[in-house]
Structures are given as structure tokens and as C-alpha cells.
Design a protein that fits this description.
Mean pLDDT is 81; it is low at 394-406. The chain is rod-shaped and about 155 Å long. Helix 2 packs antiparallel against helix 3 and helix 6 (305-319) runs parallel beside helix 7. It folds into 3 domains: 8-208, no CATH class; 230-293, no CATH class; 302-438, Histidine kinase-like ATPase, C-terminal domain (Heat Shock Protein 90). It has a 5-stranded antiparallel beta sheet. A hairpin with a 4-residue loop joins strand 6 (129-141) and strand 7 (146-156). It has 8 helices and 14 strands. The protein is α+β, with helices and mostly antiparallel strands. 50% of the residues lie in helices and 20% in strands.
Length: 443
């Protein structure tokens, strides 16, 4: 059971592989590209802030002992309030100068330890708002001494989020389109790659139905060997069948004369001998059919049940005209028996014939398609439970049914067994005996 569960259909395998690839590859690629773009935004922001930092550094002046800055040379964003870009100059956390754009902001300078000449780019969060900050420490020459100062360029993270969100939304649309395209390509690739298998499956089904006797499709190299092997197997089987037919034809002609001589013998007119000769004839015919079927097609043909049942029942109505047998057939027109027509005829003929012999008037045939089963019932005296097993022993017959059970039912038993089926004998809903032949799902 575990092995059958692990053997997944090709369509499901292809779907699972495609789904795994799409679910892993596309999201991971999306995240990787998005993060790469965000890192590039940070790099660009750092580079721009460095330009602003050096611009401020070049404009620092000492006027009347105070640090002053020529604001006219700075970027316009430093003059616009709420522009998101601000600058600060400090000495040991003491604010010496700040840009006009920071006047409406309550921003606290971060406490960091820097040595002169060192600069650092980092992210700080204040009042649930994130900022990108570039800080540099340097020594400012005042003439008498060198003051340790620091410049801080602060950018609101919203300046990065806007292009980041825009890029992410655009990227998401592209990836949705790519995912849909890859899904479509995966479906097309599946049908394209499995088309030879579908064609091979169709041809094999045609072989099963007897509509062709060999494979004719043009297949890729991976399947060409299977095609050639199957055609070779079918050709060998047909040659074997022909040899069987030739041998059986010779055997039939060889037996025809001895049996005819026995029939014309005066002793053959005795009832006991006549019955035995008839039984020998029936057994010979059955064994000839059995030998012929030993070379039957390895592909089971689909035999329509209803036409065959009608044919057998019409013949039996004529034979048992004196009983006025009412044979009720319950069978759908679309019900098929996956087996040889001769075998089905043999089973129906024997069981319906026995039912007509035993019945008072009513016989019923019920055919179930899935799984395939045949049930023959009659309104006769029935069969005692302790005698039912004897029905299928060769040469045994019950007086209720007179002749026919001995050979006929043993033949039915052999045929049912050859299809891996089962026979059940029980009581009929009509009051007599019932015979149910059950076959596996592939019959």
C-alpha cells in the first residue's frame, strides 16, 4: 500500500515540481532583488550625504570666536523645513550650528564616540521614526588651538521608503506576470513532454479493444524501444495463435471420425452410452476451446454483455418453449466484460441453461458493471447448502437439474478461475437457487 501511495501520477509530479520551483524561486528572487535595491538606496544616500558633509566642512568659518557657516552654498533641502534632510555641527554633544530645515524638528544628537577623521553611517530611531545618519569627527583649527568638532547629516527614512515602496510594487507586478507566464509554460511543457505517453496509452487501449493489432505511432527514442518490444511480442503471439489454430484444426478432424463411428454404433443407442458420448463430445469441444484460448490475446477485449445475453436468452426461450420460461435481463447497454466473447457465452449459456432446467417459469439475470458480476436466479426448488460445493466437482450432478451440472458447472468454474473470479451459490429472491460470478475490477 505504501509503494502504491508513493507512485504519483506524472501530472501530479510535474505539478508538484513546478509548484515547488515557483514557490521557492520566485519569492526568494523577489526578496533578493528587493533587498539589493534597498541596499543600493542606502549606498546612494550615504554617498549624497558625504557630498553634503564635505560641502558643510568646506564652508565652516570662525567668526568672533564662534562657528559660522555660509548657508547660501548648501543644498536647497537644508533651507526647507520638513524636507527630511538636516545637518548639525556639534562640539562634545554641544550643538554649535544646525540647518534651517531642522528648526521644526525635535531631534537629539546621538551620543557616539568618534576619533578625529573617523566617519560612520548608521540608522537611529527617535520617537518611532527612523533616520539615516552620517557623522564625522574632525579637528577644526581656530588659530590658537584645534577644536574637536563633529558634523551630522540626518536624513528621514521616508525619503528612502517612497522609492523603495514604488520599486517593490512595480517588482511585484512583474513577478506576478513572470509567475503566470512560468505556470503557463510549465503546463505547456507538461503536455508537450507527456504527449508521446498519452499517444502510447491511447494505442494500448486500442489494442485492448481489438481495434488495432500493433503500435503505429512515431515515438521519441526513449519510447521507441518499448514500441518495438511490444510489437515483437504481439507478432510472436499472433504466430503462436496461428500454430494453435492449425494444430487444433488437425485435432478436430482427427477426432471427428472416431466420434462419428461411436455415434453410429448400435451400442451408442443405449441411453447410458449415448449420454456418455454426448458428454465426451461436450468435453472435447470445451477442451478445444480452452486450448484455443490459451493463445488468446494478452490484451483483454471489451465484450458487450447485453447483446450476448439477449442472444443466449432468445435461444433458451425456444428450447424451453414448453415451460414458457420468462427470462428477465437486468443489464445496462454500456456494460462490458473485459474478456473473450466465447468465455462469456460459455458462462452465460451454462448457467442460464441450468436455471431454465430447474425453474418453474422465472429466470433472472442481473449484471453489475463495477465491479463486474453476473447473478443468475431461478424459481426452482433450490439447492441444499450441504450440496452446493458438489456442483463444481467434475462429473457430479444434482437430480434437481438433471444433466448439465456435472460438466457445465465445472467448465464455468474453470473459466471464472482463469479470470481470478469467484463463484457464490445461494438462495434466490425468486425462491430457487442463485449463482453469482464476481470478477476483479479489471474484468
Amino acid at each position: 500500500m505504501l509503494n502504491s501511495m508513493l507512485v504519483l501520477p506524472l501530472k501530479l509530479r510535474q505539478g508538484l515540481v513546478s509548484a515547488v520551483l515557483l514557490l521557492l524561486l520566485l519569492p526568494s528572487s523577489f526578496l533578493a532583488i528587493e533587498q539589493a535595491f534597498y541596499r543600493q538606496l542606502l549606498t546612494n544616500a550615504e554617498q549624497k550625504m558625504e557630498v553634503h558633509m564635505y560641502s558643510i566642512l568646506s564652508e565652516l568659518n570662525l567668526i568672533n570666536g564662534k562657528i559660522e557657516l555660509n548657508n547660501n552654498t548648501l543644498a536647497p533641502d537644508f533651507y526647507r523645513p520638513d524636507s527630511g534632510l538636516t545637518a548639525y555641527v556639534s562640539e562634545d554633544q554641544l550643538l554649535l550650528w544646525q540647518s534651517d530645515s531642522s528648526l521644526n524638528q525635535d531631534f537629539e544628537l546621538p551620543v557616539i564616540e568618534l576619533v578625529p577623521g573617523q566617519h560612520i553611517f548608521y540608522t537611529s530611531e527617535q520617537q518611532q521614526q527612523k533616520y539615516q545618519i552620517l557623522s564625522i569627527a574632525f579637528l577644526f583649527d581656530t588659530g590658537d588651538s584645534a577644536k574637536p568638532l563633529a558634523i551630522h547629516i540626518v536624513q528621514d527614512e521616508q525619503l528612502l521608503l517612497a522609492p523603495h515602496i514604488s520599486f517593490r510594487n512595480t517588482l511585484l507586478k512583474w513577478f506576478i506576470g513572470i509567475g503566470a507566464g512560468l505556470s503557463l509554460l510549465s503546463i505547456l511543457a507538461y503536455y508537450w513532454t507527456t504527449r508521446p505517453l498519452t499517444r502510447l496509452d491511447f494505442e494500448i487501449r486500442q489494442l485492448e479493444k481489438g481495434r488495432q493489432d500493433h503500435l503505429t505511432g512515431n515515438y521519441p527514442s526513449e519510447l521507441r524501444g518499448i514500441k518495438e518490444d511490444l510489437n515483437l511480442l504481439l507478432a510472436n503471439q499472433n504466430r503462436q495463435k496461428q500454430r494453435y489454430r492449425n494444430h487444433l484444426s488437425d485435432l478436430a478432424h482427427a477426432l471427428k471420425t472416431p466420434v462419428a463411428v461411436l455415434r453410429t454404433s448400435p451400442l451408442a443407442q443405449q441411453p447410458e452410452l449415448k449420454e456418455q458420448i454426448d458428454r465426451i463430445t461436450a468435453m472435447i469441444e470445451h477442451q478445444l476451446k480452452k486450448a484455443s484460448s490459451s493463445g488468446q490475446d494478452i490484451w483483454k477485449k471489451q465484450t458487450p454483455v447485453l447483446p450476448l445475453a439477449d442472444k443466449v436468452s432468445n435461444a433458451l426461450r425456444k428450447i424451453y418453449r414448453d415451460k414458457d420460461c420468462q427470462i428477465d435481463i437486468q443489464c445496462e447497454p454500456t456494460t462490458f466484460f473485459r474478456g473473450d466473447e466465447t468465455d462469456l457465452m460459455e458462462m452465460l449459456g451454462n448457467l442460464l441453461d441450468n436455471a431454465c432446467k430447474a425453474c418453474r417459469r422465472q429466470v433472472k439475470l442481473t449484471v453489475q458493471p463495477h465491479p463486474f458480476s453476473l447473478t443468475i436466479e431461478d424459481d426452482g426448488p433450490g439447492i441444499a447448502p450441504e450440496r452446493r460445493k458438489e456442483l463444481f466437482q467434475r462429473g457430479i450432478r444434482l437430480d434437481t437439474y438433471q444433466e448439465g451440472h456435472g460438466v457445465g458447472l465445472s467448465i464455468v468454474a474453470e473459466l471464472v478461475n482463469s479470470y481470478s473470479g469467484m463463484i457464490k451459490v445461494g438462495e434466490s429472491s425468486l425462491g430457487g437457487a442463485s449463482f453469482t460470478l464476481s470478477f476483479p475490477a479489471d474484468s
